[in-house]
Write the structure tokens for this entry.
Amino acid sequence: MAGEAIRFSEKQLRVLTWWRDGRWEALICDGAVRSGKTFAMGVSFFLWAQAGFDGRQFGVCGKTIASVRRNLLSEVVPYLRRLGMGVRERRGENALSVRFRGHENTFLLFGGRDESSAALIQGSTLAGVLLDEAALMPRSFVEQAVARCSVAGSRLWFNCNPEGPGHWFYQEWILKAEERRALRLHFTMEDNPALSERIRERYRRNCSGAFYRRFVLGEWTAAEGRVYDFFDAERDAAEAPEGGFSAWRISADYGTVNPASFGLWGLRDGIWYRTEEFYYDSRKAGRQRTDAEYAGDLERLAGGREIERVIVDPSAASFIETLRRRGFRVVRADNDVADGIRVAADLLRQGKMVICRPCRDCLREMGQYRWEQRGERDVPRKRDDHAMDDMRYFAMNLAGDREEDGFAALAVER
């Protein structure tokens, strides 16, 4: 970015200047992924805050503080410095100090991951708040953040990709934008002049079904049918390649009453193959297994191979401890279901994850794993999902590795 002039689209320019119009108290930018809304909103938010306030606190919120830094600040802060702003991150305090033209303000970073997150922002007095990925945050957190904006002249900034049409943010803010005095700007990929047609086409090619309508077309649409509707077992399942693998990992969804599912993954030429699996349904077998028995099953699946890590259901504390005592390096899985499905789907479509034919239970569940509407959200049906859970644990862990290497999967790029 250094030395390059940034070209803004007409819609991005509207984002940069909306706050000069006294009619609006809030801005909502929703629509497709990679449509340029996050960067424009971030730059505008800091310009507005520094132009109109001095010595005030502001909130910058994401699903997690890590996602705030990754999705927003990593691009916006260098640009602010090019504009002449002095930006100092107080990492231990999760805050930024920003100086510009004699004004200095503090920007507090918050993560709205779950219902308990509302307590983190409670008690703050803010002159404005930016909520990135607002549709992924609990309603209680968003409402608490809005309530904290009690300083005269404060404004609200919302940015999100679409979810289902029953989602509370769509019902309460987007459909009621005018009565809330909120300017709603709907973005498509064409609103991002930095995105080449080749990249746009890659996103169109890599998405299908509800993901395509939400993240490419930017529609608030219901998810229906199979979760992995693009996957055909006859066409897409493969034989494990012959020869050696350069690394091995195991993903594990633990169950006592519910089935347990373990997947063995091998790396070959940049592709991770699910070569073998273990699947045990205690109801069908008529007997529950102990942690020690499951650890033995996992050792047999490992088959003497050097396992880099075992990625385990984070709720399985006793099983994790049993594996660690047996010498395995255990990583607690990221159990975010929605992001896990998106990341797994993207890696499968790209051919970076391949399911091999001996993994019959994983292939069976791929064909049966379906969406259902639960309250205001579209969620996968809690049936035939145990291999699906261990697969998304693996995918999220792999996406974390690849992100560190400069790669971000579609869901992470939100």
Remarks:
- Residues 403-414 have pLDDT under 50 and may be disordered.
- Residues 85 and 318 are 50 Å apart (CA to CA).
